[in-house]
């Protein structure tokens, strides 16, 4: 089957760096994505990793290790507006499914 | 600006009613998905479609069906609504490169 695990909650202070981990099990892995969802809103795309290594987009970076079935989202210079839920997602080429993790609620404190 | 539009933002239905949730995308995407989101459970896949008239069961298809008669429209049908189907329903579409999913604004369905 397919499954993704990520921590349920993370708390950090403004200006800090936080890392949200994701481990996955899937068949026919294509890539690992990250999405942000503010309370009451729809998920929005942050990043996609198909190959091993680090992808950087502004304050956000995402890392993938295919051999370890593991990835993380790194948020730097945290701002209050980064308080949201963050989901990792995998696309399975074997089943054509896009599967999401249960989400990590990030609380940024002043 | 790319768009996925869900027909209703909020919906209240009675137990036993047949409910239609509509989703339309304007990006000519092949793949469309229906998820439900409940606190602590993340986004759970109900059904998805990778082409017109094609549909596949997701992880929690019981009590639901779907229809994809046109490429841009993917409908979720609750054959006989029950209170345990009270939830937030999210539609998403993904293009052939399978990298980014675009979501609609969600439909918060309450079954009473």
Task: Give the arrangement of secondary structure elements.
The complex is a heterodimer of chains A (about 110) and B (about 110).
Chain A: E1 3-5, E2 9-13, E3 18-25, E4 29-37, E5 44-49, E6 53-57, E7 60-65, E8 70-75, E9 84-92, E10 97-100, E11 104-109
Parallel strand pairs in A: 2-11
Antiparallel strand pairs in A: 1-3, 3-8, 4-5, 4-9, 6-7, 7-8, 9-10, 9-11
Chain B: E1 4-6, E2 10-13, E3 19-25, E4 31-38, E5 42-49, E6 56-57, E7 64-70, E8 73-78, E9 87-94, E10 101-103, E11 107-111
Parallel strand pairs in B: 2-11
Antiparallel strand pairs in B: 1-3, 3-8, 4-5, 4-9, 5-6, 7-8, 9-10, 9-11
Largest sheet of chain B: 7 strands, mixed
| DSSP strand content of chain B | over 45%
Order of helices and strands of chain B: EEEEEEEEEEE
Arithmetic mean pLDDT of chain B: 94
Order of helices and strands of chain A: EEEEEEEEEEE
How many β-strand runs of chain B?
11
Q: Determine Rg of chain A (CA atoms, Å).
A: 13 Å
Structural category of chain B is mainly beta
Helix content of chain B: under 10%
| Cα gyration radius of chain B (Å) | 13 Å
Shape of chain B: globular
Enumerate how many helices of chain B there are, as a single number.
0
Low-confidence stretches of chain B: none
Continuous helix count of chain A: 0
Q: Give the chain pair forming the largest contact, with residue counts.
A: A-B, 24 and 26 residues
> Structural class of chain A, please?
mainly beta
Q: Alpha-carbon distance between the termini of chain A?
A: 41 Å
The oligomeric state of the chains shown is: heterodimer
**What's the pLDDT, averaged over the residues of chain A?**
93
Structure description:
- The complex is a heterodimer of chains A (110) and B (112).
- Chain A has 110 residues and is mostly beta strands.
- Chain A is built from no helices and eleven strands.
- Chain A has strands at residues 3-5, 9-13, 18-25, 29-37, 44-49, 53-57, 60-65, 70-75, 84-92, 97-100, 104-109.
- With 112 residues, chain B is mainly beta.
- Chain B contains no helices and eleven strands.
- The radius of gyration of chain B is 13 Å and the shape is globular.
- The termini of chain B are far apart.
- The mean pLDDT of chain B is 94.
- The chains are: A mainly beta (110), B mainly beta (112).
- The interface between A and B is medium-sized, with 24 and 26 residues.
């Amino acid at each position: 089957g397919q499954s993704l695990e990520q921590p349920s909650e993370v708390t950090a202070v403004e200006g800090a760096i936080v890392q949200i981990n994701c481990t996955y099990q899937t068949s026919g892995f294509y890539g690992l994505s990250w999405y942000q969802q503010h309370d009451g809103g729809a998920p929005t795309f942050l990043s996609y990793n198909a190959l091993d290594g680090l992808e950087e987009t502004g304050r956000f970076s995402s890392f993938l290790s295919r051999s370890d079935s593991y990835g993380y989202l790194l948020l730097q210079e945290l701002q209050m507006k980064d308080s949201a839920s963050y989901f990792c997602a995998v696309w399975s080429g074997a089943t054509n499914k896009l599967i999401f993790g249960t989400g990590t609620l990030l609380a940024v404190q002043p | 600006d790319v768009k996925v539009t869900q027909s209703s933002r909020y919906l209240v239905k009675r137990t036993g009613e047949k409910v239609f949730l509509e989703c339309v995308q304007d990006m000519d995407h092949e793949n469309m998905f229906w998820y439900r989101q409940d606190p602590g459970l993340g986004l759970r896949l109900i059904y998805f479609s990778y082409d017109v008239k094609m549909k596949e069961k997701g992880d929690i298809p019981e009590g639901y069906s779907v229809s994809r008669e046109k490429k841009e429209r993917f409908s979720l049908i609750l054959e006989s609504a029950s209170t345990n189907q009270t939830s937030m329903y999210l539609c998403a579409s993904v293009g052939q490169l399978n990298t980014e999913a675009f979501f609609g604004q969600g439909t918060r369905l309450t079954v009473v």
